[in-house]
Design a protein that fits this description.
This protein is mostly beta strands. The protein has one domain. Helices cover 8% and strands 32% of the residues.
Length: 132
C-alpha cells in the first residue's frame, strides 16, 4: 500500500494502482483531485511540498490524487483491512475500507475508481438516441 500521512487524515491506496508519484507544482500540471475534500474535509492548502499520487483507475484513466504530507510504502496484512459498516460504505463510495496500522493508527483506504469527471460518458449514453 501507498500511505499518505495527510495532516487532515491518513489515507492509502493500493500500490498496484499507483503509476508514479510526482511533485504537484513542478512535475504535474493537469488537474488534481483532493479526495479528502470530496469526503467533506477542508480543502488542502496548496504549497510547494505537495505531491500527487498518480493512479490508474479501472477505466484506464490516470487520476492525480493530491497528497499533502509524507508518503511511505508498506505491506499491510489482509487481516488489518477492515470492511466499512454498510451505512458508511453507502454514504462514502470513495472509501473502500479502513486499515489498522501496526502502531494502532487508522488509515482510510481510498478507491480512486469512484472519481468521475464531467467529461466522462455516462454508461449507456452512447446507445441512447438524442431526442432533439
Amino acid at each position: 500500500m501507498v500511505h499518505v500521512h495527510d495532516p487532515r487524515v491518513r489515507w492509502s491506496v493500493r500500490a498496484a494502482q499507483v503509476m508514479r508519484i510526482a511533485a504537484a507544482a513542478a512535475e504535474w500540471h493537469a488537474p488534481t483531485v483532493d479526495l479528502l475534500a470530496m469526503l467533506g474535509a477542508p480543502a488542502s492548502r496548496r504549497d510547494a511540498t505537495q505531491r500527487v499520487v498518480i493512479v490508474r483507475a479501472a477505466s484506464g484513466r490516470d487520476i492525480a490524487l493530491l497528497a499533502s504530507g509524507p508518503i511511505d510504502v508498506a505491506d499491510v496484512d489482509p487481516s488489518d483491512v477492515l470492511a466499512l459498516p454498510a451505512a458508511l460504505a453507502a454514504s462514502a463510495p470513495h472509501v473502500s475500507a479502513i486499515i489498522v496500522a501496526r502502531d494502532g493508527s487508522l488509515s482510510l483506504l481510498l478507491e480512486p475508481s469512484t472519481v468521475t469527471f464531467a467529461e466522462d460518458t455516462v454508461l449507456g449514453e452512447e446507445l441512447c438516441p438524442s431526442r432533439s
